[in-house]
Specification:
Structural class: alpha+beta
Number of helices: 12
CATH superfamily of the largest domain: Bira Bifunctional Protein, Domain 2
Number of strands: 9
Helix content: 40-55%
Bound molecules: zinc ion
Radius of gyration: 45 Å
Strand order of the largest sheet: 1-4-5-9-8-7-6
Oligomer: single chain
CATH class of the largest domain: Alpha Beta
Distance between the termini: 96 Å
Shape: rod-shaped
Largest sheet: 7 strands, mixed
CATH architecture of the largest domain: 2-Layer Sandwich
CATH topology of the largest domain: BirA Bifunctional Protein, domain 2
Number of domains: 2
Amino acid sequence: MTVQEITEQLGELRERALRDVAEADDPAALREVEVAYLGKKGQLKSILDAIGGLPAEDRPRVGAAGNEIKTAVLEAMERRRRRLEGIALEVRLAAEREDVTLPGRPLHRGSLHPLIETNREIARVLGQFGFVTYETPEVETDELNFQALNIPEDHPARDLWDTLYVTPPEAAPRDPAGGPTYLLRTHTSPGQIHVMRTVQPPIRALLPGRCFRYEAVDASHAFEFFQMEGLMVDEGTTLADLRGVLDEFGHALFGADRPTRFRPGYYPFTEPSVAFDVRCIVCEGEGCATCKRTGWFTLLGGGMVHPVVLRNGGLDPERYQGFAFGMGTDRIAMVRHGISDIRLFLENDLRFLEQL
Ligand SMILES: [Zn+2]
C-alpha cells in the first residue's frame, strides 16, 4: 500500500470509529467498539501493520497519524461513557421518584382495649372532681389487704374473698415473728391505706388496678378482674358529698336523664355502706339478665370510710372523715359495649377487640 492509500484508510477508520462510538448506547456496546477498532486484532492494527512496507522516511508521519486516531477514539469513548452513565442515572432517578398523586395505602390503626378505654373514661369523669390516679401494688400483705381494712383474721367477711396466696398461709404463720403473709390483692381497697399513709388530706384518689380471686371462671366471673376505687378524705366530708359525686358520675357515664338510686349495703371498711344503682342500660328497667330482672344495674358499692380504717391509715377520725367507693371496670365495660362474657376481655382475640 502507498502512503496515500494508508492515509485514506486511516481517515475512513477514524470517521467510522467515532460514529460507532457515538451510536453505542450502553457500556457493553462501547467495549465492542473498542475491541473492533483498537484491539490487538482490531482494524487500526491491521492498517498500521502495512507501515512496514513504506519507505523509512514516511513511517513516522503515518505512525503519528495512527496514534492521533487512537487517542481521539479513546477520548470520544470516555466522553460517551460519561454520557451513558448520566443517562442511566437519570433513568434510575425517574423510576424511583415518588408519585405523590398515588392514593395512600390504608394504615391499620389499633384501638384501645375496652377495659383501658373504660378506665380512662371513669378517670376523666372523676378527674373533673379533682380525683388523681395512684398506682398501688398487686401483691399485698394480709395486713393491708384485710386487717387494716377492718377485716380481722376471724372475720366472717373473709369468706367473701377467695384469696390467692403468694405465701401459703400454712407455711407462714400469722405470728408477727413469722413475717408477713403475702397474697394477690383481692380488691383495690388496700390502696386506700397506701394513700392515707403517704398523702396528707385533702385526699382525692383513684386507685385502678387488677385484682385476683380464687374463683371458678364463667361468663360473669374471672379469677383476674379490674377494679376502680375512689377515696376522698377531708375535714367535714359527709355522705351527701358521696351522693353528689356518684350521681354526677352515673349521669356522666350513662346519660343525664338516667335514674339513679342508693341502697344500704355492707362492707367492713365503710360505715354506713351503700350500693349505687343506675336504671338498667340494657333493658331500661323492663328487667333482663344483665340486671337480674330488677331493672337496676349496680354500678358500685361504697360508703363512709370506717374510723378504724382512717386510724390504720394514720389519720385522726375525730378530725377527718372520708368516703370510698369501688367498682368493677369489667362489668361497666361489658355494659357500655354490650358484651355478655367477661372472658372475652382476657383472651386478647383481635377479632373480638376490633369490633369495639
Ligand atoms: Zn336490665
